[in-house]
Amino acid sequence: MKKTVFLGAFTVAGLAAAAAAAGTMDDVKARGKLNCGVTTGLVGFAAPDANGEWKGFDVAVCRAVAAAVLGDASAVEFVPTTGKTRFTALASGEIDMLARNTTWTFSRDVDLKFEFTGVNYYDGQGFMVPKELGVSSAKELDGATVCIQTGTTTELNLADFFRSNNISYEPVPIETNAEAQQQYLAGACDVYTTDASGLAATRATFENPGDHVLLPEIISKEPLGPLVRHGDHEWGDVVRWTLNALISAEELGITSANIGEMSAGTNNPEINRVLGTEGTLGEMLGLDAEWSKRAIAAGGNYGEIFAQNIGEETPIGLARGLNAQWTEGGLLYSPPFR
Ligand SMILES: N[C@@H](CCC(=O)N[C@@H](CS)C(=O)NCC(=O)O)C(=O)O
């Protein structure tokens, strides 16, 4: 009884502070495997394929980190987490990092004591409705039933949006995207709301995607990115710079096709620093010179990962939009490798 009370008093932040004292990098190296928290399944972002192999845009971040640290992109234990369980899983040390369409917010950073190591997808919250409902704006949703995943920013933004527009809704709380899909298609809710990328990924798996429309309103900012426990800066740096390596590789024109050739040395000093033929950046991270070469080779540069998993040529069909490089009018901007 006493023990239950004691454990119940543990906050996510308290757990995170305790677990962060340990050197995650050493743990990962000793274990020979990266424990990476992902979703329970969102095609394009993180889901097992027909062979049970995890695939997706977020999965690629886990694999790149494993390749950088362990030299093996397949040395990853993918740990499925829901909107509710993800933070406890990270805080308790069950996972080394979370790569699960998670929005960087003030309270998750400051109060829950996590550290977001960058943004791998700039998103915003949208709404999907069946076409036959005849709705063309989210402002027409007064009185609607809304499927919504618990423990998410989605829940909070929805309340703000309806309140500020003086309209009401009835939430239908759900735990996973699979459940949301099922409930929405069964008509248990009129509307499904989540990150616009999640809506596109979900709709792509419907038998008749064309029967469902995404409403024009984007009601929030959802910068999605990987996160680690606050306080373990050595590990945070590894995850941050692995993501930056994928982003920089695209900017610098390093691809999975030419990485072998470029690794022999080029006349561009920054490419050489990224690929470890010049400078000592790997050593500064506590890794070898080829850490980022391996990270990029694991699934290609950021653009290749985007195109393969969620891009316009996939059923999910997302345009680069805000996720284009800064040189192309987007927000992707890695700090320099020097
Ligand atoms: N970005 C939001 C929402 C993230 C979220 O959980 N989205 C759902 C709907 S797309 C999801 O990923 N579900 C996958 C799952 O159920 O495991 C947050 O960080 O709170």
The spatial strand order of the largest sheet comes to: 10-9-11-8-12
Radius of gyration: 21 Å
**Could you give the count of β-strands?**
14
Q: Stretches where pLDDT falls below 50 for ≥5 residues?
A: 1-9
Give the integer mean of the pLDDT values. 95
Shape: globular
Task: Name the quaternary structure.
Answer: single chain
In short:
By secondary structure, this protein is an alpha/beta fold. It contains 15 helices and 14 strands.
Describe this structure in words.
The protein has helices at 2-9, 12-20, 24-31, 57-70, 86-91, 106-110, 153-164, 177-185, 196-204, 233-252, 259-262, 269-275, 281-285, 291-299, 302-309, and strands at 34-38, 47-48, 54-55, 76-80, 97-98, 114-116, 121-123, 125-130, 144-149, 169-174, 191-195, 212-214, 222-224, 227-229. The radius of gyration is 21 Å and the shape is globular. A hairpin with a 5-residue loop joins strand 2 and strand 3 (54-55). The model is unreliable at 1-9 (pLDDT under 50). With 338 residues, the protein is an alpha/beta fold. The protein starts with a helix and ends in a 29-residue tail after the last helix. The strands form 5 sheets. A 5-stranded mixed sheet has the order 10-9-11-8-12, with helices on both faces. Glutathione (GSH) binds at residues 39-42, 82-83, 101-103, 149, 152-154, 176-177, 194-195, 198, 222, 224.
